[in-house]
Amino acid sequence: MQFVGTNDVAADVAVQARKGNSRLKVTDRFIQTLRIRKAAAYIPSGGRILDIGCGDGALFRHMSGRFSEGIGIDPELDTPADFGTYRLISGWFPGDLPVTDGFDAITMLAMLEHVPPDIQREMATECSRLLNPSGRLIITVPSKRIDPILDLLKRMRVIDGMSLDQHYGFDPQLTPLLFASNDLSLIKSEAFEMGLNYLFVFEKTPVPSEPEFQLTASSAERSPMQHG
């Protein structure tokens, strides 16, 4: 994995600010860009991506040329949009997601903490169902310690807050318990941004290969079939 320099991040932030939602403050965009870069390293190249809580589609712009098709869904999206290789849908997951083929990667970046606890289990089940075999679910969740910091920055008008008022006090340590199942295995977890954010990567169990039947000399001798 390559180390990302400050200049690279700044350039990425500038591109996202120019092409994305102009209402986001630069600090918000910077935090978002660091999160996307962290997650992008675990997204399989060339596959279909579902981004839950997609915002203005920043993940797809960052991943440009590295996926075949993308769908983003977000209840706060003003209007649906189609950009050719990806489209953005206004609505809630999973209820408002159209019937679709499976995905090679599903991302939920700084989104789970905005979901009411009674809906989180349904989301976990649907993510597992929609993932292709060997597909990955990539989640980032902020530490509970970050809320007072973000609240202070918001009052100082340094950040917009990105729906800070909708946080439900989600404990990041519950993420593996919520998403790990018979189909999904946790393959990566780590803290980043000085421990203020957590990354979790799950992978869906691949389809087992069919065993090959090999006819050996001994099995041929035991066969009741005789050749004339």
Provide a descriptive summary of the structure in words.
Strand 7 and strand 8 form a beta hairpin. Helix 1 packs across helix 2 (26-40). By secondary structure, this protein is of the alpha/beta class. 30% of the residues lie in helices and 24% in strands. It has one domain: 3-Layer(aba) Sandwich (Rossmann fold). It has helices spanning 6-19, 26-40, 58-62, 117-130, 146-155, 175-179, 217-222, and strands at residues 48-52, 69-74, 81-82, 86-90, 103-109, 131-142, 184-192, 197-204.
| Sheet with most strands: strand arrangement | 3-4-2-1-5-6-8-7
Low-confidence stretches: 1-7, 9-20
CATH superfamily caption: Vaccinia Virus protein VP39
**Would you list the SSEs in sequence order as H and E?**
HHEHEEEEHEHHEEH
Major sheet description: 8 strands, mixed
CATH topology: Rossmann fold
Q: What is the general shape?
A: globular
Span between termini: 64 Å
Mean pLDDT: 80
Q: State the helical fraction.
A: 25-40%
